[in-house]
Design a protein that fits this description.
- With 237 residues, this protein is an alpha/beta fold.
- It has a single domain, classed as Rossmann fold (3-Layer(aba) Sandwich).
- The protein is 46% helix and 12% strand.
- It has 9 helices and 6 strands; from the N terminus they run H-H-E-H-E-H-E-E-H-E-H-E-H-H-H.
- The protein is globular and about 65 Å long.
Length: 237
């Protein structure tokens, strides 16, 4: 991701100090995560089917909500997952291109014949409290430096499917804390989601380890403590 790329360039420029260059991740305030139980969170979002798969983020072409809809179409039409809510959470940016893209997504859902199972929620306040509404969170972006939504989903114990781009491979360990797919791979996404819907043990296992990992690596107090340690080390050097 961007931070590690910068760190790498600094290590190349100052090899004598390479061991002293450390990347400290952004933190997550875990007190905000999953305060509503599953049923309450699903009620708030208007979800009534047995399963819920969500994509969270600004509606913009880079986030590939269109790929998510095409994967949903295959899951519904060829694998007969009719009891799944596919949820797109977020609003478009303020530019005309994002507004047009958002409108095209609604048209695509209609064209694919899946509109009944697709929810466009718009912006959702206090979203981290509602994470337990989802069984799986998808992040099919073409590029992603650091996804707070993915971190928060992992903290809540959601299974995650993400593209192997940017910083995502540093956040999600494939087959351990989530599933990684290649970008622009609709069938890779379909197959990953099918696995998680069919295999409850895998879904729970990935979610539990993801939650533990986030609490060990990204929890607010841990990150702040590490920053303080680094400042003290620098001051005493």
């Amino acid at each position: 991701d961007v931070a590690r790329a910068v760190a790498g360039r600094l290590q190349e420029a100052f090899p004598q100090h390479a061991e002293r260059i450390e990347v400290v991740p952004n933190w997550v305030d875990l007190r905000r995560i999953g305060n509503l139980n599953r049923d309450a969170a699903r009620h708030v979002l208007g979800l009534r089917r047995s399963w819920a798969i969500g994509l969270i983020g600004q509606i913009t072409p880079l986030k590939r909500q269109d790929l998510f809809l095409r994967a949903a179409h295959q899951l519904i039409k060829t694998r007969h997952w009719s009891d799944v809510d596919f949820v797109i959470v977020g609003a478009p940016g303020t530019n005309d291109a994002d507004e047009a893209y958002a409108a095209s997504l609604v048209a695509l859902a209609d064209e694919l014949g899946i509109r009944e199972q697709v929810h466009f929620t718009g912006f959702v306040p206090e979203l981290p409290q509602r994470m337990l509404a989802f069984d799986v969170i998808v992040a099919p972006s073409d590029n992603e430096a650091f996804s707070l939504a993915v971190i928060e989903a992992m903290a809540a114990g959601c299974a995650v499917v993400a593209t192997r781009v940017g910083g995502m491979a540093e956040i999600v360990e494939d087959e351990m804390t989530g599933l990684l797919i290649e970008p622009d791979d609709v069938w890779g996404l379909v197959n990953a989601l099918s696995r998680l819907l069919v295999d409850r043990h895998l879904r729970v296992q990935l979610g539990e380890l993801a939650s533990l990992t986030v609490r060990e690596r990204f929890e607010r107090e841990r990150v702040i403590d590490r920053i303080e340690e680094l400042y003290l080390e620098a001051a005493s050097a």
